[in-house]
């Protein structure tokens, strides 16, 4: 941290903010920033809220109704609220930790501070794997949308490849500030698509997959009786819906004023939780056991085409962000400390495009190899999402506050230690049990005659 005198003399303060009337010349993460290169510290708090919401409201919301179908409405809402509370605290801890340690860019830096070099490598690998898997699910979501709009005009494998190319081009935009304006449009599109389906299932006689002859009443369940595998898979899907958390480090690092982080976060989590509860309850109430995954397929053929047409830009923006985040992380890790990090040199562009291309290729292989949307979503949420949203943040609080207990164990300190330990336990349980359940679910989907195989041409929008 700078002394008061150093802070007064520096072009930027300890948060990396430019002083009034001065250009931003140095950042604790990005180093020297000049007008000749990209400005990585140019995201306002309103755009920050949009970026946060877009990392959350994208693929995950489409699996909420099917999770409620497995759990029942009441348990589904209770579990969703519990996960919302825990992840909101985790998200809040990112902002606090970033202010306390401005040099932190991602969870790998946290791992190094708390656990040393092995912790850094482990969390960095998990972080990159997580976002690459999410990028793969993003490609799968775009391919489903293209299939639905075109009535499966061509092979699904081709649509996945097209999705990969689109994701590569757009994710190569250098800064989140520029992508942030796309996030607003993406949010509008995905929310409009979900609203269309929600209204449609409410006014139509029955969902698309329900028996079309005779009387029909929605067979929703207030409290369901799922198997352990189905229950934990559904919980993992809900975790995935809130697992934009690890990207918040990157978003906070590109904010003009990180002190506004909490304001953006509260807007994000309030909107996201309200949308999830509303969509999950309404769509499942009217569709019952015939709710589809993704949820946009729940209404009739015409509504399905219209909703996916609106959703497509939003899904593309989601794919852009979730491909950009791991590529930026790898790029920064490789180029940190180099003048090429913030310049527009050939080496800068070669490294940057190499990172976006590498992430895209691996994500494409994942999307093509596991073409089961709900299974892939729950696997990501369980295996990697919990480890990125629960355990590290509990360790962050303990790292910054454990020493306080040596002088005075206040009731608040004791309560927070218990809370952090509880978050650690919940995260570990969900990670182990959820991974098992998701693996079983994916294996079962492959054993079905209608299951879609790797690099399949089968319509994945059915």
Automatic annotation (TrEMBL):
Q: How does this protein lie in the membrane? A: Multi-pass membrane protein
Please name the InterPro entries in this protein's record: AA_transpt_TM
GO molecular-function terms, A-Z: L-amino acid transmembrane transporter activity
Q: Which Gene3D superfamilies match?
A: Amino acid/polyamine transporter I
Q: Which residues form the Amino acid transporter transmembrane domain?
A: 43-438
- Its chief place of residence is membrane
* Entry keyword set: Membrane, Transmembrane, Transmembrane helix
What top-level branch of life does the organism fall under?
Eukaryota
Which compartments does it reside in?
Membrane
Answer whether the UniProt record assigns the keyword Transmembrane to this protein: yes
A GO cellular-component term linked to this record: membrane
Q: Does the keyword Transmembrane helix apply?
A: yes
Q: What parts of the sequence cross the membrane?
A: 73-92, 121-142, 148-170, 182-203, 264-286, 306-327, 348-370, 376-399, 411-433
Q: Which PANTHER family match?
A: AMINO ACID TRANSPORTER (PTHR22950), AMINO ACID TRANSPORTER (EUROFUNG) (PTHR22950:SF683)
Q: Which family does it belong to?
A: Belongs to the amino acid/polyamine transporter 2 family.
Stated name of the protein: Amino acid transporter transmembrane domain-containing protein
Native organism? Penicillium chermesinum
């Amino acid at each position: 941290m700078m002394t008061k005198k150093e802070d007064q003399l520096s072009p930027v303060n300890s948060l990396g903010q430019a002083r009034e009337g001065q250009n931003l010349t140095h950042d604790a993460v990005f180093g020297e920033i000049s007008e000749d290169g990209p400005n990585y510290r140019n995201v306002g708090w309103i755009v920050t809220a949009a970026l946060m919401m877009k990392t959350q409201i994208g693929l995950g919301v489409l699996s909420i109704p099917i999770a409620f179908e497995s759990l029942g409405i009441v348990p589904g809402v209770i579990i969703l609220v519990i996960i919302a509370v825990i992840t909101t605290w985790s998200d809040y801890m990112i902002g606090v930790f970033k202010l306390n340690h401005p040099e932190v860019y991602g969870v790998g830096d946290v791992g190094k501070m708390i656990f040393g070099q092995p912790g850094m490598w482990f969390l960095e690998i998990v972080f990159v794997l997580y976002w690459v898997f999410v990028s793969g699910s993003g490609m799968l979501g775009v391919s489903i949308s293209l299939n639905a709009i075109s009535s499966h005009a061509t092979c699904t494998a081709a649509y996945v490849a097209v999705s990969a190319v689109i994701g590569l081009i757009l994710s190569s935009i250098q800064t989140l500030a520029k992508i942030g304006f796309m996030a607003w449009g993406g949010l509008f599109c995905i929310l409009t698509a979900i609203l269309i389906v929600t209204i449609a299932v409410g006014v139509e006689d029955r969902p698309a997959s329900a028996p079309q002859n005779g009387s029909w009443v929605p067979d929703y369940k207030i409290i369901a009786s799922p198997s352990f595998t189905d229950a934990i898979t559904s919980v993992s899907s809900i975790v995935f819906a809130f697992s934009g958390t690890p990207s918040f480090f990157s978003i906070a690092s590109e904010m003009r004023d990180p002190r506004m982080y909490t304001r953006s976060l509260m807007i994000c989590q309030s909107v996201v939780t309200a949308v999830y509860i509303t969509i999950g309850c309404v769509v499942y109430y009217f569709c019952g056991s015939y709710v589809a995954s993704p949820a946009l397929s729940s209404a009739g053929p015409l509504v399905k085409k219209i909703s996916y047409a609106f959703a497509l830009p939003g899904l593309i923006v989601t794919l852009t962000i979730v491909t950009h985040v791991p590529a930026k992380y790898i790029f920064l890790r490789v180029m940190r400390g180099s003048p090429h990090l913030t310049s527009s040199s050939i080496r800068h562009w070669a490294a940057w495009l190499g990172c976006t291309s590498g992430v895209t290729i691996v994500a494409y292989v994942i999307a093509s190899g596991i073409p089961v949307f709900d299974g892939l979503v729950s696997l990501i949420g369980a295996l990697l999402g919990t480890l990125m949203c629960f355990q590290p943040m509990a360790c962050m609080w303990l790292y910054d506050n454990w020493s306080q207990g040596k002088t005075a164990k206040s009731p608040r300190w004791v309560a927070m230690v218990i809370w952090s330990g509880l978050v650690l336990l919940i995260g570990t349980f969900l990670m182990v049990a959820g991974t098992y359940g998701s693996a079983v679910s994916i294996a079962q989907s492959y054993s079905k005659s209608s299951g879609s195989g790797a690099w399949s041409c089968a319509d994945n929008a059915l």
